[in-house]
Each structure stands twice: as structure tokens, then as C-alpha cells.
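Hey Z.,

So I finally got round to the adenosine-5'-diphosphate thing we talked about over coffee. Here's the setup:
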Amino acid sequence: MTDTAAPSPTANSSGLSDLHKAILDSANYAIIATDATGIVQVFNRAAERMFGYTAEEIVGKQSTRLWQSAPEVQADAIRRGLIKKPGFDLFAENPEPYESVEYELMCTTKDGRHIPVLSSVNAVRTPTGVITGYLGIGTDLTVRKAVEEKVRQENAFRLALETSAPIAIATANLDGKQTYVNPTFCKMVGYSAEELIGKGMPRVYWHPNGTEMLKRATDRVLNNHKGTENFELMFRRKDGSSVNVYCYVSPLLNDEHETAGWLAVYFDITERKQVERTLFESEARFRSYFAESASGMSLVSPDGRWIMVNKAACNITGYTEQELLSTTFQAITYPDDLDKDLKQAEHLLAGEISSYQMEKRYIHKTGRLVWIDLTVSLVHDAQGKPLYFCSQFQDISQRKQTDEQLRRAKDAAEAANQAKSNFLANISHEIRTPLNAIAGFAEVLERGDIEAKERQEFAQTIRRNSEHLLNVLNDILDVSRIEAGRMTIEMQPVALRSLLEDVYATLHARAESKGLKFHCKKAADLPSTIVTDPTRLRQILLNLVGNAVKFTDVGSVTILASVEAPRTLKIEVVDTGLGIPPEQQRAIFEPFTQVDVSHSRRFGGVGLGLAISKRLAGLLGGEISLHSHVGRGSTFTLRLQINEQTIVPIEPSHPSKAPIRSVRVLVAEDSIDSQRLLQFLLEKLNLKVDIAANGQAALDLYDQSVANGTPYELVIMDMQMPVLDGYTATPLLRQRGYAGPLIVLTANATAQDRDRCLGVGCDEFLSKPVQLHSLEQTVRRHFGV
Ligand code: ADP
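And the result:
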């Protein structure tokens, strides 16, 4: 080796050759050399940059000033992890054992900053081992420490992210092979990292299009380096179960900024999906229930607009869906029911109630009212703000109608019950009053010490009261016959004028006794004869006029008969009496009803007359109407459709006083009183009377009379008798050959009774109580001479 080949270093002021100095200055590390006492010999450029001193300022000075920092500064640096425990002092005190030692220590720069420095110190020795100085090489740790801290933090963050965040991360290379998976991903798919790394991904993708979707996504990602793709897919776990994930795929770039693979981040959305599915299912269920429900269903906004309505709601209200959606519930609610509904809705909106139920009316599109049973609740959003009312309603019009009918029927039943109770009280009064007179005067007559005139008066009173009793009884029977539809009408030509006069005459005395003016005005064009049932027409008129007289204390009663239309006969009964309040004007035509219960006590009567009259008028083809003012009087008007007849009416036959042939008569009667009465009456008529107490006794007497050669020429038969009744005895009598007249005298006074009697072989029918003149008429017809 020759010494010309390399430039020879030249010595400079520091004692170093230029070459050595250049080498030292080019080093990146601070290089400081001291003598054995620590006086700085060499201080290179890097040392100047690190400490801020120039070589001139530090060379020849004690080096300890560079690294001797206050103990608290060192302690703080250790605590902050900037340096490890410093050992330089130790080294300086006892350098022997150390060949080369690394220290971290806090040094102090010229401007007073403390910097962590990693230094490697070597003792410079003579060949004999004597230390002649020290050589230290140092690096400023500030930057490295900062980088290390950053890396540490990043690692900690990454670790935290990978291990504890619920985010699954996986990377793959361009071949689709897994290059990284984090623990969350492993947990998510149930495979270990070893089972996945280096393997193709498709094994965990379960969605039918999963592989395809992923490929398309990665293709897009690969074609567009910056793009991120996101989509949903499904993983199949190792145990076969599935997991829904939401996936973000982004490219992984290499140092050349080329796509080298991709990174996918997955979120487990299984639970959310389940909730969505449940929601979807429940919404689907709700929608189907809503649409198909037989009840009307609707969603209504807080201000009343219909938001959604079902078919039933349209059917109930009569509106189409479109029509309802363009209006409000207020618009079709019956005004009387609206306030109540709105108040309830307010309570609901205020959260004071959770729902309400009410019955109210909608106005159907056709205008009719529909009763509905409505239940309303309120649906809120997640923040608790009211969203809409949910209302459900059924058409209950039918039920309401039935309720109403039931209520009316109940009211009517109660009224009828009440009327019947009143009736019982009245009837008892009506029967007791005449009975009182009858019994009282009969007793007086029995005593005998009375004058003939008085006796006649008392007898008349008894007869009048008996007739009254009979009328009450007849009324009751008439009503029950009419109610049972068994009232028969016998149409015949009737002399109208004389019938009217008859009614007038009958009531004249009563009206006069009350001081009333009493008139009967017959229009000139009144037909002389009409076809009707004279008994029933008389009954109607006697009742109307009788009432007029009864309920008028001052003024007049007038009968006005006229022809209203060609075929309508109008008979008005006008009085100036009490009058009838409007609310009673219908009721008084119902049986047992009076304007005032006190009427029965004041005026007598049981409240049957008008009910009978109205129904009889109906049976005669007419009607009765009423105009009345309380305190001013009443007008009852009878209108009859008439068939005018030209036939001359049959004049009522006046009883003839010519003698009756004295014939033998057999009376079958069980009641001793009736036997005696009949015997008395018949003997007065010049007949020879034999009495049998029952049907069998009558047959025996008849047989005997035949055997004696003096058979009976007349038989009078009661129907209800002990041993053998009239219904059985009559045909047996006929079988024995009796062909003479057979008169039934019975308390069974209905038309059916009459038909039955005539059916078993009777000729005449008389009902009890027997009226002398009727009996006389009948006898006279058969045996008059
Ligand atoms: P009654 O006369 O036996 O009570 P009605 O059926 O004939 O029964 O009459 C029913 C009720 O109608 C009477 O009790 C009376 O209250 C009222 N009324 C009938 N006619 C008149 C009239 N002309 N003026 C005032 N009230 C009358």
C-alpha cells in the first residue's frame, strides 16, 4: 500500500486533520470527544445543531454542562417516557467497568431547552488501558420519541378498533384471497383467522347474489380507486346460521398508488333487519286488518282530516274513499254530536285519556243519519308528538232502532199497565156506585112501608143503575171483542134522521138538567137512508154526545150532521166544555185512558167510550177526528163513507098491546132469582110456567108433559146449568120431538155464543139481563093473537 493513493489529512486548529473533520462533520450523529477530565476536544456539526453551541464555544470547556440537567427534569423525562434511567453520572464516576455504554438522558441546549438524547459513550484508552478521554455519539430522541408515540397511539387505536369496536374488517388481495380479518369479523362469521386468511371469500357469502354483488362492487372499486361501495349482504356462519351485514368496500393501494386489493368493513345489521321484518310484517298485518275489517277503520289527522279509510268506512258513510279523503270527520258528523266528540279528542290530544268510546251519528251521503259506535285512540311519533287518530266504528243504527222500539214498547207497556191499574180502580168505582144505589133502594123496597110514588121512583133508580152497570159491562166486552177482532157489524139500511133524533132524545134530559143549550142540526141534503150498522152508529154517537154533555158545565152541545163530499157523511159533536190538552188528544182514543184520573171520580166513566167509538167508526168505514182547546171546548167529528139508499127504512116496530095466547112454557134455569123473575114476567104475559133447575130436569118435565098429553109450546133455556147444560139439553129436546120455539136466555152474550146456541137447535137468542120488552116482543111474535 502506498501513501500517495489517498489524500493525506492535514491538521487544523482543533488538532484534527481536515479529512477527519470532514468525516466528523458529515456524520448525522452528534460526536463529542473529551479528555479524561471531561474537557471537550471535538464537537462536530451535528453536535452544534443539536446543542446550539458552536464548536468554538464548547471546545476546551467542561462537557458536563451539556447533559447535567436538574434532577427533577430527568425525573419528569423518565415519567413521560422520554428517556430511561440515566446512567451517565455513574459512568463518569466509575467508568472502569464500561467499555461502551448507551444512555438516554436529558441534555440542555444553549437556549435552555431540554432534549432527550440517546448517547453511546466509549472510553478512549492507551494500549496499556489508561483512559485518555471519552468519545460520545448522540442522537436527539425528540423526533424519534414523537414518532414512536404516534405509532404507539396508532397501534393502540387500531387494536382497540379491531378488537373491541363492533366493526368487522377484512382485506383481500386482487385474487380474492383473504389477507386480513379482525377478531370481530371472525366472531361474526364463526371462522378463526387461520381458517380464513389465504382462502377465497365466497365460502362465507350466503346471499344468493353475494359473490356476484361482491365481485361487481370490487370491480367498481378497482376501476375507481377512490370510490367506496356500500351494500347489504348476508353471511353464512360456520354453524350454518345467517347474519345480515352492511358492507363498505374500498380499495387498498400499494406504495405506487395502485390498487393492490380491497378493504371491507362490515356492520352486523341482523337485529335491525329483524326489527324491520317484524315491523314490515306487523304493518302488513295492520294493513290487511285495516283493509278487510268489517268495522269502519280510519286514520284521521289531529285537525280532523281523513288520512286513510277502509272499505267498511266508505260503506257506512256512503262516501267513496276519495270523497272522504278530501273532507274531515267534522263535516259528516251530526252537529248535535260534534261538541262531545271534539271535547273527547282534545282530552286525547292533551294526553289526559288514552282512548275514548262514544255513540254518535254520521250524516250518510244520502242525508240519512247513521248511528255508529266509535272508538278512538291516538298514535304518536318516536318523540311523542301526536301523529294521527286511529278510529274504529260500527254501524249500530239497527240496534239503536231496536232499542228505540223496545223503549217505546216498554213505555207503552208501562202506560198500558198504568192505564189498566187506573181502569181497575175506575171500574171498581163504576160498579160499586150503581150497585150501592141498587142494593140500598132494594133494601128500602123490602121494608115495605113506603108510598106508591116513592116505590116507583126507587124502582126506577134501581133500573137506571142496572142499565148503567150493563153499559159498563158492554163497553168492556166491546173493547175485548174489538181487540180480539171479533166484533161483527151488521150492515142494513138505516133512517139517518130518526137515528140522530133518537140520540138527541136520549140525551136531551141530561143536557137540560145541566142547563146546557142542546141542538141537533141536520143539513137539508142529508140522505134519508144510509147503509150502516145502526146499533154501532148509535153507540158511537151516544158516546160522543154523552161525553160532550158530561164534560160541559156551561154553554152548549150541538150535533151537526152534513154531507161533506158526495159520499162522506160528517157528524160533528161540538161542545163548549173543558177541552182536551194537545198532548192528550191521541191518548184518549186508547182504552182506559182519561185526560185526568180525577175525571173518573168527577164524571164517571172508565175511559173506554172513545176507544170503542174510534174502532167502531173504523169498522163502519169511517174515522173520528178531534179539535179541542182547553177551556174553550171540543169538536169530535165522525166521518163515514156512505152508500146512500132510496129504500124506505124499516120503522122500528112499536110493541103491540094485543093479548097473548095462554100457552104452557117450560123454563130451564138454575138461578133461583132468575127463575122467580122469569116466572113473574111470563105469568104477567098470561103464560103458564113450569120451572126446571137444570137441563135434565127440563127433559124430564117435557117427557111428562108429552105423557100427560099437554106438551109445552114454548121452551126458554139457560145455557150454563149444572147436571146437564143447555147446549146438551137442547138437541136432546129436539130429538124427543119438540118442534116449538126455543128461546135461549144466557149471560154468554157474544156473537160466538149466539152462533153456538143457534147451531144446537135454538130459535131465538136473548142475553141477560133480560129486558122485559125484548122478552115480550119475542113471545108476542110467536103467540100473539
Ligand atoms: P170515559 O168518558 O168513560 O172516561 P172516553 O173514552 O169516552 O171514556 O173518554 C176518555 C176521556 O177523554 C174522558 O175521560 C175525558 O177525560 C176525555 N174526553 C172525552 N170527551 C171529552 C169532551 N167532549 N170534552 C172533554 N174531555 C173529553
